[in-house]
Amino acid sequence: MISKKFKDMCNTPSVIRALAGYANERGKEIGYGNVFDYTLGNPSVPVPEEFNKAIRDLTTELSSSALHGYSPNPGNPEARSIIADSLKRRFGIPYEQKHIFMTSAAASAIAHAVRCVTEPGDEVITFAPYFPEYNPYINQSGAVLKVVPANTEDFQINFDAFEQMMNKKVQAVLINTPNNPSGIAYSSATLKKLADFLYAKQEEYGHEIFLISDEPYREIVFKGADAPYVSCFYDNTLSCYSYSKSLSIPGERIGYVAVNPKAKDADMIVPMCVQISRGIGHNCPSSIIQMAAARCVDLTSDLSVYETNMNILYDEFVKLGFTVVKPGGTFYIFPKALEDDAVAFCEKAKKYDLIFVPSDSFGVPGYFRAAYCIDTEKVQRSLPVLEKFVKEEYGK
Amino acid sequence: MISKKFKDMCNTPSVIRALAGYANERGKEIGYGNVFDYTLGNPSVPVPEEFNKAIRDLTTELSSSALHGYSPNPGNPEARSIIADSLKRRFGIPYEQKHIFMTSAAASAIAHAVRCVTEPGDEVITFAPYFPEYNPYINQSGAVLKVVPANTEDFQINFDAFEQMMNKKVQAVLINTPNNPSGIAYSSATLKKLADFLYAKQEEYGHEIFLISDEPYREIVFKGADAPYVSCFYDNTLSCYSYSKSLSIPGERIGYVAVNPKAKDADMIVPMCVQISRGIGHNCPSSIIQMAAARCVDLTSDLSVYETNMNILYDEFVKLGFTVVKPGGTFYIFPKALEDDAVAFCEKAKKYDLIFVPSDSFGVPGYFRAAYCIDTEKVQRSLPVLEKFVKEEYGK
Which of A58, A270, B9, B214 would be a feasible disulfide site paired with A275, CB 3.0-4.6 Å? Predict the structure, then answer.
């Protein structure tokens, strides 16, 4: 019999996807170059040529079975070792191969991590603004996602609200830094305070509380930003990484879970991920993609365009009188809308072919997200349009 | 807090993996060429060169974003169309793009299919002998796997036992033909009888019963075997395919769900799979692998070695007095052990460096599986060892 739950879910399409669809349709009418589509977080810079070369080389260097045969369940051993070594070298945490579980990017990493450290009915806390896909990611595991209201001052953590929501049923805290949609990185002070708070609560409750750190934007950090590596602050951390944004390969679905070696049962987490894989149909990312990513472990695409675009947009938003916190990374900016109703604001912007995403689905009313992973030339061309929109609609 | 369920699962390793590990260790001692390792279903023939060429070509033909960007949620549209067209041409069922959902091979296809057509607590019936991974595949979805005892006469379906176990809670029936581990393909007569039975039960219970057809061995069919396409017999069929065995690319994790266009809510199943993906962290197979598989849609590796090996082994088992049903496909054969306790039989065989998998974990006592996806030369060399084993241990 057809599952009612999943059938019903089909009727609530993603706001972001709907707006992207609109932008696409509008582009067909007036030319895509004339639509200022700030909806999707799709990398706009090319993959490093080394990645494509690695793929080509692998098809000639390795035998068919070595290249295309089953990976061991936790992933390609060499890739896992290379990643562990890279993280150890860069962040000073003594990861070994056994702490790395290869995944189909961050979505899959979170799917495994949450199942490792929760039982059905347990609570997982995250902080607004947050990526709306966390709802299906967490709730379909059987755990329950709870969202702490935003600290709109600077989009660091709202600790007062967090303390009020904290309770014994919380088994995991899910953070995303640098953050989609705010663009803000959690500072060393924030992470230290978070760690101290969680250590105290572990003591008080008598059980571990795991920190699941969603880090697809880890390599996209701007000048002057304080964006430290989360796992350095708290032992019970599962770092969920994706190469989607750093190597511009979101379609290849490659990432990993890195288990802090000091975490509770650290040596068991990867074997547990293997068991979880069996039930959710994961069973490893593509073997050639694992190997190619390992060959590019310390590379990134040329990510500089994102900072260029951010600075242009940030200055423009400030000039136009928007309340906006300067992003420390990612390719998102998250200004306050010029009226309380962000949906109405974004609807008005659409009349000018400026396509922004209202903040409501990110768990904060009254803001909007602009994804500036587009050509700088287009960002520049959008500025007079933005000025016109603000002047005509809001008299500024 | 660490999940007790998944931690406990780590303590029950797979029998097959354990034996494969033993074979590997033994190979280090006496030389791998001297171990007759019949444990793993790992393709032994190389990928078609066209697949590697497709991968290389794609890295130069397409732009970075066209190649490595996000696939739409149900998978690459062109790949889906190519697969639909191929199935339509080959099997006469009018599949369209909208009926194909790209998956990370059959494990992922089954993970999606079972969630589409069951609610937690529903029953899914399968038939012994069966692939033991069906237990985590089904049970972790929230449904409950029930196993119909084998028809050891010919390893077609045991309809008497099936009828007794059938009840209103059964929402799906999961079959695997050609079958791992028996090597048997369900005949037209079997599938017709199964379809008639399910149609009658749908009527009687007043709800659909879906047939989930696991088909990784669909292209490995031997001369004279009656191995028809399952979906031709029953409308409510979800075909779960994998390229792992037909293209010898199990590490690349690529396959699909094909929804029979006459199935209940046929146009909704793929959108439902998209929703399911969000919760289990699937979010598409690798984009380059989807495209490369589509370019090889009607190709296979040179699969002839499997039939050669099967004939050699079958004749030998018959000669030595084993009870054995001749396989119609796959790269498995499933003879009756020479004593009631298949585990004891396989332990004795190990003394001769013949590594077989006892049948107990496949849901049938007293048999063993030999996976003959190995070099024919090695199969030949194993024959005198097999004769010696049988003579010395069983006086035959």
Answer: B9
Reading the block at residue A351, the tokens are 């009349």
Q: Which residues of B touch A63 (CB under 8 A)?
A: 46
The gap from C-alpha B303 to its chain's centroid, in whole angstroms, comes to 16
Summarize pLDDT for A305-354 with one digit per residue, the tens: 999 999 999 999 999 999 999 999 999 999 999 999 999 999 999 999 99
Determine, for residues A281 and B283 on separate chains, whether the beta-carbon distance falls below 8 Å: no
Compute chain B's Rg from CA coordinates: 21
> What is the distance in angstroms between the Cα of A70 and the nearest Cα belonging to chain B?
4
Distance CA A5, CA A2 (A): 9
**Which chain A residue has its CA at the smallest distance from B120's CA?**
A3
In B, minimum Cα distance to A209 occurs at B1
Let me know whether A186 and A284 are in one domain: yes
Task: Count how many residues are written for chain B.
Answer: 396
Nearest-neighbour CA in chain A from B260: distance (Å): 14
Candidates A135, A167, A246, A286: best to mutate against B (most CBs of B within 10 A) is A286
B chain contacts of residue A111, beta-carbon cutoff 8 Å: 279-281
Can you tell me the distance from the alpha carbon of B151 to that of B166, in angstroms, rounded to the nearest whole number? 16
Total number of domains in chain A: 2
Residues of chain B positioned with their CB less than 8 A from the CB of A60:
52
Range of the domain at B235: 67-295
CA A90 – CA A84 distance, rounded (Å)? 10
Domain shared by B284 and B314, yes or no: no
Cα A144 from chain centroid (whole Å): 19
Q: What is the pLDDT of residues B357-396, one digit of tens each?
A: 999 999 999 999 999 999 999 999 999 999 999 999 999 7
Q: Is there a single domain that holds both residue A280 and residue A316?
A: no
Residue A240 CA to residue A254 CA, distance in Å, equals 11
Nearest to B207 among A1, A6, A46 (CB): A1
Name the closest residue on chain B to residue A44, using Cα atoms: B65
Tell if the CB–CB gap between B68 and A9 is shorter than 8 Å.
no
Interchain CB distance below 8 Å, A65 and B52: no
Tell me which of A261, A295, A329 is where a domain ends. Answer: A295
Query: Searching chain B, which residue's CA lies closest to the CA of residue A247?
Result: B68
Question: How do beta strands B255-259 and B237-242 pair?
Answer: antiparallel
Tabulate helix, strand, coil % of chain B (nearest 5). 45, 15, 40
Based on the fold, state whether residues B164 and B113 are members of the same structural domain: yes
- In this prediction the pTM is 0.97
Q: Do A283 and B107 touch (CB under 8 A)?
A: yes
Type of residue at B153:
E
**Yes or no, beta carbons of A109 and B281 under 8 Å apart:** yes
Q: Do B2 and A284 touch (CB under 8 A)?
A: no
In a domain, B336, yes or no: yes
Helix axes A105-117, A266-280, angle to 10 degrees: 110
CA dist A199 → A118, A172, A230, B197 (Å) = 18, 12, 14, 59
What is the tens place of the pLDDT at every residue in A227-258? 999 999 999 999 999 999 999 999 999 999 99
Instruction: Specify the pairing of strand A332-333 against strand A368-371.
Output: antiparallel
Residues of A in contact with B275 (CB under 8 A): 6, 9-10, 136
Q: Which of A295, A314, A343 is the last residue of a domain?
A: A295
- Cα B377 to Cα A340: distance, rounded to the nearest angstrom: 76
Q: Are residues B234 and B317 in the same domain?
A: no
Contact A3 B117 (CB under 8 A): yes
Q: How far apart are CA B83 and CA B218, in angstroms?
A: 14
